[in-house]
Write a structure and sequence with these properties.
CATH architecture of the largest domain: 3-Layer(aba) Sandwich
Number of domains: 2
Shape: globular
Order of helices and strands: EHEHEHEEEHEHEEEHEEEEEEHHH
Low-confidence stretches: 102-107
CATH topology of the largest domain: Rossmann fold
Number of strands: 16
């Protein structure tokens, strides 16, 4: 038995994507972190919806999707010309932008405000995008809906928002549960905690006696990831640099890392240092994010795409469990 189910040091060129586990479509796709995870788990990812042209260019360059819709989800969900195979999905995936709920952000101060990321795409009220995503699910009716987000959604005043998300899934015809995962326990060299909303269509769950359910009849999944932590020193390479005056052990600015442990969560605005003279290089950041070493970042910074993305191995681990416990029984 290997220590890790999926290797964090890998390439697109050498990966084997079987495409035999089901069909997926990805929203808020960014550079395709989750897409690469589904591919590693054996799924066929048909394409993406992404608002940012630069991110979409990276996605298209690396994934060559069958479909790519570069527009706000508010417009995408209203389209009447969507391909028929998008109405026959096994999984609809999405990571609605989450900075309004991040514990590292402004949280309540930003709720209801229009915001945009630095590439300059159209402004959006970020905390309404989750509901646009659920409306798209109600329209397409995939078997399963998966939405990744920050842990801050289940803390403090954000719990009330999360309750509304539950209610929206219920109204759309889905049973939903939240699962909290730490990437460092899943074979990723990064201590990144994120929640996953995982929803199964009610009619499918109710009709399938092989799917495990709780005492109320709602479907449940069993995870239990506990792979050994991967220390930076096992693979890290460094480049010489000069820290700014913000050099600190905090979450912002120039961050000092402990090479005897896995990396802290990669944030798009930070630089990561092993001493006052050397910082992590791009190849190390790729491995920390479990991005393939031959991914073409085009004009985007490596740390930006890695910081914005679901680590591919996290998605691969989750998708494998979902296939084993749900889809293999539903599609038999």
């Amino acid at each position: 038995m290997t220590k890790h189910k999926f290797p964090y040091n890998w390439t697109l060129a050498d990966a084997v994507f079987t495409k035999d586990k089901g069909k997926v479509f990805s929203c808020f796709a960014c550079g395709g972190g989750s897409t690469m995870g589904y591919k590693l788990a054996g799924f066929d990812v048909l394409g993406c919806n992404e608002i940012d042209p630069r991110m979409a260019e990276c996605y298209i360059t690396n994934h060559k999707p069958k479909y790519a819709f570069i527009q706000p989800i508010q417009e995408f969900k209203l389209r009447e010309d969507l391909p028929t195979d998008l109405y026959d999905l096994d999984i609809l995936d999405g990571s609605p932008p989450c900075s309004s709920f991040s514990m590292a952000g402004n949280r309540e101060k930003d709720w209801g405000k229009e915001k945009h990321f630095r590439e300059g795409q159209a402004k959006q009220v970020l905390d309404t995008l989750f509901f646009d995503f659920i409306e798209l699910a109600q329209k397409l009716k995939p078997k399963i809906v998966i939405a990744e987000n920050v842990k801050g959604m289940i803390k403090g005043k954000a719990k009330a928002y999360t309750k509304k998300v539950y209610e929206a899934f219920d109204a759309a015809g889905y049973y939903v549960r939240i699962y909290l995962f730490n990437a460092a326990k899943m074979g990723v060299p990064q201590r990144r905690e994120r929640i996953f909303f995982i929803a199964l269509r009610k009619d499918i769950a109710d009709a399938n006696a092989d799917i495990k359910k709780d005492k109320n009849g709602a479907p449940i999944l069993e995870f239990g990831f506990n792979e050994p932590e991967i220390a930076i020193k096992e693979f890290g390479t460094y480049i010489k640099g000069k820290p700014t005056q913000n050099y600190t052990k905090s979450r912002f600015g120039d961050v000092e890392v402990d090479v005897n442990r896995s990396s802290p969560t990669i944030a798009t605005i930070n630089r990561y240092w092993v001493s006052t003279d050397y910082m992590l290089d791009d190849d190390t950041i790729k491995k920390i994010g479990s991005y393939p070493m031959d991914y073409n970042f085009l004009s985007s910074e490596v740390k930006y795409l890695v910081g914005m993305s679901v680590p591919p191995i996290v998605t691969a681990q989750v998708a494998t469990k979902i296939y084993d416990q749900w889809l293999s029984k539903i599609n038999k």
